[in-house]
Amino acid sequence: MLDVTTLEGADSVGKVQQMCAKAMRPLPEDPSVGPAGAVCVYPRMVKVAAKAVKGSGVNVASVATAFPSGQMRLKERLAEVRYAVGQGANEIDMVISRGQFLQGEYRAIYDEIASCKDACGEAHLKVILETGELTTYDNVRYASDIAMAAGADFIKTSTGKVPIAATLPVTLVMLQAIEDFYGETGRMVGMKPAGGISNAKLAIQYLIMVKEVLGEKWLNNKWFRFGASSLTNDLLMQIRKQETGRYQSGDYFTKD
Amino acid sequence: MTIKKTYKLFIGGKFPRTESGRVIEVRGKDGALLANMSQASRKDFREAVVAARKASAGWAKATAYLRGQIIYRIAEILDGRGEQFVSELVSHGLRENKARKDLAQAIDLLVYYAGWSDKYQAVFSSVNPVASSHFNFSAPQPNGVVGIIAPGRGSLSELVSTLAPVIVGGNCAVVLSPQDATTAISFSEVLATSDVPAGVVNILTGERDELGLEFAKHMDVNALMLCSSDSDETRALELEAAENLKRVSVHPNKSLKEDPYLITDFQEVKTTWHPVGV
Predict the structure, then answer these.
(1) Does any domain span residue B152?
(2) What are phi and psi of A185, to 5 degrees?
C-alpha cells in the first residue's frame, strides 16, 4: 500500500533506479515482503522509473500539473500530464489550484480536474488537495466532493512540500466524503494520505481509520495508498524486529 | 505544606513518565516513603535510543572546546545545587560527611573529564610510519550511541564516573540507573539546565534484570559500558551484544577511577592514507 516516493530537485537517474529496485523488493533477503504499490517521481524521471519497474507489477506514478504549487496555465499543466503519461506513467498525481479554490472559483477547479482526467487517458488520476493550505475542514470536504465529481480515481491529502501535511482528522474528513460519494453514486474512490507519515505506528492508525469508515473493501493497494519516503524503512525495521526480537538500526537498511 | 516531587525519566531533554505507568516506591532508611520512581520499560528504552541517535550527529560534530565547556558547566550547576544532593543522599542512608564527599567527587570528575575534551584526540592520535608515499594518520572518533548500565548503588559519583568519559568523547548515552535512589533523576535536572543538548544524555530508572539484555540486543546501540561484578550477567550481555559487534566494556559494580582510557574505550580509530609526493 505504499507509494515509494522521491520528489527532490536532486533526484538523479541512479537514485530513482535504486528506489525502484527497493520498491520491487524492499528486503533483499526476504521476497515475501512487498512489492510497493507504486513509485512516485517527477515527470522527467518517469521513463527511468518505468524501465526499472517493468514487469514487476509496481506502478509508476508521476506528479504533474506544475507540482507542488500548481501555479501555471492550464494548457501547460495538461501538456505535462500528457507528457508524463506518454513517458509511461500509470498514475498521475495532480495538484489543484489552491489559490483559485480559496478565491471561490470552484467551477475552475472542477474543470481543471475534469480536463486532467481527460488528458490522463488510461492512467489513474490522483487529485492532491493540499489540505494544509485549504485551512478549514469544510474546505477539505468541499474540495474532496468537487474532485470526486470531476472524475478523480483517488483523492490525496498533500504534496509533502508544505509544513502541514497529512493529519488524521483531515484524512477522516476525506474518508467520509468518499463514503458519502460511494453511497450516492456507487463509484469507489481511493484515498492517499501523504506527507509526514514516517513510522509504522502512525500508519496503522490510518489503516484502522480506513477500516472503520470505509471497511475492508478499501484496505488494499488498489484503493488505499500511503505517500511516503521514510515509512518504508520503518516498516522494514518493524518486520525485522518481529523476526529477531531486536530493535533495529537504520545503519543496516539502505537509505535510498 | 510539603510538595512531593514526581521523579520521572529523562529522555530527549524532556521528563516523561514511563509509558508503562509502573512505579516503584523508594523508601528512606527509616522506612518512610521518599518518592514513587518510574520503572522504565523496554519501550522507554527504545525511545531513549531514538533520542540519543537523533542527537548523535550534532554532539559528535560539536567542537572539543564546546563539549568541554558544557561538561564544565554541568560541574558548575551541580555545585550550585549541592545542598539538594547532600540531603538526598542522606535520605538514602549516607552519613552527611560521606554524602559531601560523594558530591565533591562527582564535581571533580566532571572537571577532570571536561579538561580532557580538547586533549584526548591529541594524545591518542598518531602519525604512522608506512612504506609508501602516503601521509598516514589515525585519530579517535566517537562510537555513537553508548548504553551505560551504571553501578547499582545510587551514589552520584558512581553515575558521573561512568557518564562523563562517554559524553566527553562525543558519544550520546542512554543510562540505566538503579531505581532505588532518586539521585540520577535529580542529576538529570542538572543536565537539563547545563546546555547539554537534548538527547545527548538520557537517563532511565529501572530493573537491570528486565532491561539489561535489551541494552545488549538493540542494534542501534553501538557500545555498552557494563558495571557488573556478576560473571553470568556479563556473559549473557556479551553474547547478545555480539550480534551487531557492540563493544562491551566491563567494569566492577562501583565508582570508576579518573582515567583517560575510559574515554578511548568508546572511540573507534579512523586511519587516513593521504597521498604525498615522493
Answers:
(1) yes
(2) -115, -20
